[in-house]
Design a protein that fits this description.
Chains A, B: The record marks 173 as: Important for catalytic activity and substrate specificity. Chains A, B: It is found in: Cytoplasm. 2 copies of one chain form a homodimer. Chain A is an alpha/beta fold. Chain A has helices at residues 5-11, 39-45, 83-97, 111-114, 123-129, 148-160, 172-187, 216-237, 253-262, 270-275, 280-295, 310-313, 315-330, 332-337, 340-350, 353-361, 364-372, 387-404, 421-424, 430-448, 502-516, 532-535, 540-547; strands spanning 24-32, 53-60, 70-75, 102-106, 118-120, 165-170, 193-198, 241-246, 266-267, 302-307, 414-419, 454-459, 469-474, 479-484, 487-492. Chain A contains 23 helices and 15 strands. In chain A, helix 3 packs antiparallel against helix 5 (123-129), helix 3 (83-97) runs parallel beside helix 20 and helix 9 (253-262) packs across helix 21 (502-516). The interface between A and B is large, with 61 and 61 residues.
Chain lengths: 551, 551
């Protein structure tokens, strides 16, 4: 592998550890905890790992461990910048405990545990991946660890390798499953601790004890860089409206952070659309209003940010999709007989009036996509819908109507972008490099402390890393019961954008000005070597959220 | 405007000037020059500006000018990183000549000269834009300065503002027109010098006297950053083939530079496709071969780079497009009568057998696009064709055939990207910041020297900026006669990728290894503040080209 100059330089970067982790640590336990909701049910499901205390580490002179520990690590789900640093922090942490400790990586996600695919991560391998993006050190995968069979199969290889602790780096689902696995291994006396690490660029794994998930910082900075560049482009040529879709299906944190960083003309927040029960037409009207308002000032250009999951947050569209799923499942053979040119009418006549109206409002291409492209379960494949094109086309139609009414005289040309894969494997920002390394190192401390069912935790993140507070949070503390795929399950509550939260309120206060004025900010590329105000700033979401939170 | 931390820090950056420009300069003239081709015809068309000598500036103790000079500046065509630095270098240069010199910017491109739209660029304005991306200081536009009426109209405002020199920052077309304008103003004794500056991210404005155009360095670094990130992503999840289209319609320099930086599995070079007279099927087979070869090693993922202009370089497709343009123009009314479901058959029956076969080989959507979407002149809109999707779909079809023959057993899932607008307005790299500032400053020196019809020039660009050689190149020296839009015209010869040039040969030597192996390099984001080997490296294209060139 030919390394770039930046790869070589970053390999030498020493992540900053919280001062408390720079020597020996001792564990300080807080009060017993409760789950976020449904306490009785969660308690019943997790008899061995419920109600554990929060843990904070404090400095002590004692250091190291009498005997080595063998640890397994798994990267679960979509990539996020910094995963390699979690692993290198974990490696350094267990080596600090005892020089003969060993780290095994299970390959291609949780499936590697079940299928016994692994490799030992030696110092040479670890050094190749320090401070780099990607999950390529051991790969990642989306297999869900959910069944007793998987747990037992995993235990075979854990025993074979004498692994007594497993670190699962993943999002809310993977950490939920880590808690279930911890409970199971504890219940059967397997002698394997399970520790989770909060990962996801989407930023939806956070709560009053987890300040942020890793990767969000870097990914949003990469997206903000290219959004800023596009803003500067459209402010130079002054002839295009750019519709930019951003990754994040379940929550709009990414779009919101990018909006705070870049100050585009329009940013749609899915959670607000849902809360206000907006129709697709209302979203379209909102954007068209911005286009009209700017055109009245001679500004026939702009930038619109759209969260990837928007379409599923629009109540009417959500209802339409559900009804289409039912209809096409129930009348699959009848539908298959309909000639393609008659399908549209057939669908309309078989839907309830509300849904039929929503269906008719969609551009023909999207409507066709909703009935034709279905996943193996027969469901509409929402992720295939190019929401950015859908909206720009519908805005164009709306503008035609307004023009015919004499209410719009501007020009309207559009460009489309989708940013997601560009940011998931970027080299971690200094923030994520430090945060991840610290999370991995803290996981090693949790292992040394003998606990299980905990998530590695660093807090006080808007301060310099030396001041960060390291500890562990019982995963059950973040859980409640929710309906997922037709079953009520214990899950970690997903953090959506709070409409009364500081980041959204900051945005809401300024967006009218951004809409008509041209208030673009250009963040530029992530910097690693310059002054702290450029290189070491956390996301604005974190800064605004933490300002009002006492720790 | 709220500035980002990076914007604020970069505003304070002092571009490095060649040592020769740091005091007074004197002009050293070389031998009279000849045009690149068609010397007799070019000489006849440019009687007043043909055969001028190359100019090199040398240091002298004398400095400044007896009287102030008023200069006009125009940004022409697509944006390129560094345009603002050309303007700030020009501003500082003419202020160095005399503190009362004035700089006027014509707004929204060459049209601003003709329509008398301008603003004076004062020190306050200039300081706001130093080292920033974009052309937003005065905007850009694509009006072509070609006619006597435009020249005369422009002269009115130049006289009104007492402007005696005009700097045109643009690509090959704009510099061709700058030469024509210089010749015209000289011929009529207008007393206005015209100086060109070589701009284009496409990298196709270069020759044996112009080493590179500005913006290419930064834009390719932005694209390489995100391509690298995508490579790391696909190397982590190991499940997608990413088809990435890159800006650059006329030449493949951008794709080639990104390939040299990132080492993707496949990169198509349009110039090679044309030289080898490859069919679309052969291009598809070439990519499919890579997919099959990798799948045989269990690698069902990869990255393919595609230059935006590819489709027009495939001789058979080029011929088809030309024939379709003629056919649909000649039989427009007949075609309009054909029912949409019969159009395909009608088109096939009206094409020559070769073109009909090419047409039939295209996916239905692309074929429809070729007949339906036409520009105001009735021509097929090639730029609307999503070449990245066209190729990935055709590769998929090819793989189905191979699978049926038992020659392919892999999985094939695809993702598509197009990078262009993301890079055109990025903050200029240190290289482009220095190069552009120097080009602008050199333009001021050319103005002080009283010459016209020259392009501002800096050479020795792979050395540190202090060692760069500053001077001027007669624009006619780069010209030859070519057929463009049906007319034979004097134009600057466009630089395509040379298949016997060092950059392509470097690529060609390694590509077989990159195809099957996974040899990805991850350049990461542009850095401004770190060690020189990260922050100050010119493009590999420039490095490889200059290695074999003596200066």
């Amino acid at each position: 592998m030919k390394k770039s100059a930046l790869q070589i330089a970053r390999a030498a970067y020493h992540p900053q550890l919280p001062i408390v982790l720079t020597g020996g640590v001792k564990m300080k336990e807080g009060e017993p905890t409760q789950s976020a909701g449904d306490q009785e049910e969660i308690k019943k499901l997790f008899p061995n790992t419920y109600g554990l205390p929060e843990i904070i580490f404090e400095k002590t002179s004692a250091t190291g461990s009498a005997k080595p520990v063998n640890v397994g690590v798994i990267l679960s789900g979509g990539q996020a910048p910094g995963g390699h640093n979690v692993i290198s922090g974990l490696f350094d942490g267990i080596k600090h405990l005892h020089k003969d400790s060993k780290l095994y990586g299970f390959l291609m996600g949780p499936g590697g545990l079940v299928d016994h695919q692994y490799k030992e991560l030696t110092a040479d391998i670890i050094d190749e991946y320090r401070n780099t993006g990607g999950f390529d050190i051991i790969g990642s995968g989306r297999t869900k660890l959910e069944t007793k069979e998987q747990f037992d199969k995993g235990l075979e290889i854990l025993r074979e390798l004498d692994i007594t602790a497993l670190v699962i780096i993943g999002g809310d689902d993977s950490n939920t499953n880590a808690a279930i696995l911890a409970e199971y291994y504890k219940a059967i006396g397997a002698g394997v601790q399970v520790i989770g690490v909060p990962k996801t660029i989407d930023g939806d794994l956070k709560n009053n004890v987890i300040e942020t998930s890793f990767g969000f910082d870097t990914a949003t900075k990469v997206y903000s860089e290219v959004i800023g560049n596009i803003q500067r482009d459209c402010n130079s040529s002054k002839k295009y409206w750019h519709f930019i879709k951003l990754m994040g299906r379940s929550a709009s944190h990414i779009a919101l952070e990018c909006a705070l960083q870049c100050q585009p003309n329009v940013c749609i927040i899915s959670e607000e659309v849902e809360a206000k029960d907006m129709t697709l037409e209302e979203v379209v009207d909102y954007i068209a209003d911005a286009v009209v308002a700017r055109s009245e000032q001679g500004l026939n250009y702009g930038v619109v940010l759209i969260p990837e999951g928007l379409i599923e947050f629009i109540p009417a569209v959500k209802k339409l999709i559900a009804e289409l799923n039912d209809l096409l499942a129930a009348k699959a053979s009848e539908f298959a007989e309909i000639a393609s040119e008659d399908q549209r009418d057939w669908v309309i006549s078989n839907l309830t009036p509300d849904c039929a109206a929503t269906y008719q409002s969609l551009p023909a291409g999207v409507a066709r996509q909703l009935t034709l492209d279905r996943d193996p379960h027969g469901n509409v494949q929402v992720s295939l819908i190019e929401t950015e094109k859908l909206l720009s086309e519908m805005v164009g139609k709306r503008l035609e109507v307004l023009a015919a009414e004499g209410k719009y005289e501007g020009k309207y040309s559009t460009m489309h972008h989708f940013f997601g894969y560009e940011g998931r494997c970027a080299d971690p920002s200094n923030f994520d490099a430090n945060y991840c390394y610290g999370l991995g190192y803290t996981a090693a401390c949790l292992i040394a402390s003998g606990v299980t069912g905990y998530m590695s935790s660093l807090r006080n993140l808007t301060f310099a890393p030396v001041n960060w507070v390291a500890g562990g949070i019982p995963i059950t503390m973040m859980m409640n019961m929710e309906r997922r795929n037709g079953h009520v399950k214990p899950v970690i509550r997903k953090a959506l954008v709070e409409l009364d939260g500081a980041p959204f309120l900051k945005f809401a206060k300024q967006r009218d000005e951004w809409k008509v004025g041209t208030c673009y900010t250009y963040p530029g590329p992530i910097q690693y070597f310059g002054p702290a105000e450029i290189c070491d700033q956390p996301s604005l979401t974190l800064v605004y959220e933490q300002k009002r939170r006492k720790y």
